[in-house]
Amino acid sequence: MAGLETSVLIVGAGPVGLTLALDLAWRGIDVTIVERRRPGEPPDPKCNHVAARTMEVFRRLGVAEQLRNAGLPEDYPHDAAYRTTFTGRELTRVVIPCRRDRDTDMSGADSHWPTAELPHRINQLFLEPILFAHSAAQPRVTILNQVEVEGFEQNDDGVLARLRDLASDTTRTIAARYLIGCDGARSTIRRAIGARLEGDAVVQQVQATFIRAPDLIHRVGSKPAWMNISVNPRRNGNVIAIDGRERWMIFNYLRPDETFDSVDRDWAIRTILGVGPEFTYEILSNEDWVGRRLIANTFRSRRVFLAGDSAHIWVPYAGYGMNAGIADAMNLSWLLAAHLNGWAPSAILDAYEAERWPITSQVSHYAMSHAEKEIARRGAVSALIEADGPEGDFARAEAGRLAYEINRPQYAAGGLNFGYFYDRSPIIAYDGAAHPPYTMATFTQGSVPGCRAPHLWFDGPDGRRSLYDAFGPEFTLLRREHRADMAPLLSDAREKRMPLTMVDIAGEEAASLYPRALTLVRPDQHVAWRGDTLPEDSGSLVDHIRGAAASA
Is 303 in a helix, a strand, or coil? Predict the structure, then answer.
């Protein structure tokens, strides 16, 4: 068969690979995705949470509203409820409004976040088909299903990959400028470049079962919830509402001395649900998993990159696994596009690992720390938690207090969305200011170079508008001092062919969030530079932020 050509070859059509392809195409880059599965073949029922930062990406790509309207029924609460069993007494609840009320109900733990797109609870079963259809509709995206990469070679000019069509058992080649491995935890691309996973190989084991049980929703012990956590001495587990009607995922957290085969699956399911032998359900699939904290020792080999689970794996607390992968993709996408579109040298690509590896390591330790606290909580459940009377009431109150204290941060992980910053990047012009500290849940918006550009709302000709909607597709210069002469910077950017949009902002909130007169924001919404006046040599600044200074 004849060979193919593409600018970027992406291996894996999961959420990370599809979002990367959409963003590259949006930036004018031709992309080919290869995927082993058949068109329409459903993914595994995982990745139940789309973070605010990810929803911001989908808003820019024009798919956020469609995703927002998919998944659970519009009036189904996105709460996390802790009960003695799924059908038992409620201990506590982290409130997250249903999608119908997302923009109006301010009672949620994350309802006041500084963003135009709050998180959304949607399983990958609903998420991925929408992203696939949206990608397939883009003229710059080609998707090759039932195809795998058998191997590849790279040189100074590009990558030549060998493809096998799994349906016809035929082979062909594809030439690409760059190859990105988004092929998951068992990544063949990671192995091919010799990258090693390092860290904690086993944190916990979870016996996971995907079931259909139409009667279960009528047995819930209190108001329905998206995440339902059972807390009792016999068995701790989660029951996740997949469609809000009949499909559920049940996690049975195994104890250190247990194995997947040593615990009776049916007994564990019934104990977590709090139902007897009369209750019937259908097992759709077993999805057992091992919680790990592993990070590849490198995310790159010359023209081949890793993103998502191919680069890092961690225990799925705070719903950050897929979202961290999409953050990788958005960082890599604009760097690749800047180079391929001709306004940045290849040296700009060095920023990918320099920025993403430290954040991946840092955030994975947050998830790991939370996992340790949660595992300890599960092991300290009082024998009186299901008892009647004052002693039982006290045990339930204490269990509820502890569960809320430990777990609210993971269901409203503001710090993981808005707090992280890049503090060692070769393409950020730092000014010596300290970055605001953050935790899994807490953060302070700041315009220190490396931080996410603070979000604010302002009044425009068409009404209330998100600042992010005013950003240009690549770099954006925010100007508070409207009289400041921007001609030198605009001229230097134009000379270097670096796209730059200027946006004027005003008001007390803008002055508070952006204390400097000028703030330069990157395509991934992180601050690249700020100052009260332009530097004397604005051309050097342009070269710095587009990676040309390092290659000069």
Answer: coil
Question: What tokens does 509 get?
Answer: 């909130």
The residues near 300 (Cβ < 8 Å, ≥ 6 apart) are 193, 306, 349, 352, 353
Angle at 62 between CA 452 and CA 502, to 5 degrees: 50
Q: Report the distance separating Cα 543 and Cα 249, nearest Å.
A: 50
Interatomic CA distance for residues 239 and 525, integer angstroms:
36
| Tens-place pLDDT, residues 134-180 | 999 999 999 999 999 999 999 999 999 999 999 999 999 999 999 99
For tokens 């955030």, the residue is 363
First to last CA, the chain: 42
Whether 149 and 188 have beta carbons less than 8 Å apart is answered as: yes
Q: Is the separation of the CB atoms in 123 and 247 below 8 Å?
A: no
Mean of per-residue pLDDT scores for the chain: 93
DSSP symbols for 331-370: HHHHHHHHHHTTSS-GGGGHHHHHHHHHHHHHHHHHHHHH
Report how far apart, in Å, the C-alpha atoms of 254 and of each of 363, 381, 510 are.
25, 15, 50
Cα Rg of the chain, angstroms: 24
pTM: 0.95
Per-residue buried b or exposed e for 440-461, using 16+ beta carbons within 10 Å of the residue's own CB: bbebebbbbbbbbbbbbebeee
Residue length of the chain: 552
